[in-house]
Amino acid sequence: MITSRLALAAAEPEDTNPLIPHTPEIVISLIVFGLIFFLLKKLVIPAFEKAYAERTAAIEGGIEEAQAAQKEAKAALDKYNEQLAGARHEAAAIREEAKEQGAQIIAELRAQAQAEAERITSTAHAQVEAERAQVLAQLKGEVGSMATQLAGRIVGESLDDDARQKRTVERFIAELEESAN
Amino acid sequence: MTLALTAFAASAEPPSPGPKDFDLPAVFHIGEFGVTKPMLLVVLSLFVIVGLFSTMARPAAVVPGRMQFAGELVYGFVRNGIARENIGSAEFMRFVPYLFTIFLFVLVNNFYGLFPFLQFPSMSHIGYPLAIAILSWLVYNGAGIKKKGFLGYLKHETVPGGMKGPILLLLVPLEFLSNILLRPITLTLRLFATMFAGHLLLILFSLGGSYLLLHSDNSLALPAGLVSSLLAIAISFLEILIMFLQAYVFTLLSSMYIGEALADEH
Prior knowledge:
The structure holds two protein chains of two kinds.
Chain A: H1 2-11, H2 23-155, H3 163-180
Chain B: H1 2-11, E1 28-30, E2 33-35, H2 37-57, H3 66-87, H4 96-111, H5 127-148, H6 150-158, H7 167-214, H8 221-262
Helix pairs in contact in B: 2-3, 2-4, 3-4, 3-8, 4-8, 5-6, 5-7, 5-8, 7-8
């Protein structure tokens, strides 16, 4: 390059004015510029703009998605809190009810037991009374005959079929009964 | 470099870089028409830009790979950093392809100046920046006229807000000159001149350095040659920055002109 320049300088020593434009250079410049402009506009800029637009959309979409997710999460949290509060309330109510029911059951059982006890006691009384009456009746007969026998032995004669004596014995037993009672 | 050295050895004259160094001979001829290196470089930029960016943009993935990320960085810089800032979010998308093309076209053609073997910023030939500057002029004036009508746009660009009376006789021609006539010229000259001067500096210090180190008999030639060579490297780094800045400035100014033409009030 330098050689050619020097050779040129040696061959054509006259100075050229660099401020005078050459028409072919202007024309070439315009043509090349136009071609570059056209090709960049058709091939390059749409691709860059597409990437920009998609990137913007992706970022905005991401933000929107995140906001939606946050909203959803908050709604779920609220719902759970509400449910939890409801459950707590319900549990308290159940506990209260159970307490009441327990008290009621205890009272009922107590009443039942008392009634049973009373029933058992009265049955026992009745039984004892009946047995006593039975024993008393039995004794009444036996004591009569034994006393008559005893009196016969003491008197020395049989008093068995004497009606008057029988009345005396009965009266005696009635007296005995009264004193026993 | 060896070829250059033999050339020096043969001539052994101190190099004198100048505008003639930008007037390269035709690489080959098509009929009478000589095809020069900057022409080839400009055509090459078409393949570099479109090839590179269509590769980077093709995945169009939501999660970009490295290539797509790099492409989006550049595209986002022009789209959001330049176009939207200066034109406003309502109307900027229409102009993004145009501004993106300017940025890449100027950037790649500037960076040629530092690539080994290519080593020539095509924008240092005034015809190339002039073409883009004319396009920008058409675009911003066209956008303004389309929005406000011819006279409405002319008034918008030439009558400063809040001014009344005879002062307008002075202001209107000045505003017309600066806002309508001179803008394409300043756009062209700014880009052309920085690329031209930068490349000239690189030629000066690299040729000067090698001449001083290899062919001069002067006793100061060695240190001077070393400094010159180091400067050539330092200026290369500076050029990286300038090449980017010029592409940025050209795009930025184009978008500012469009934004101004579309603005509701001054």
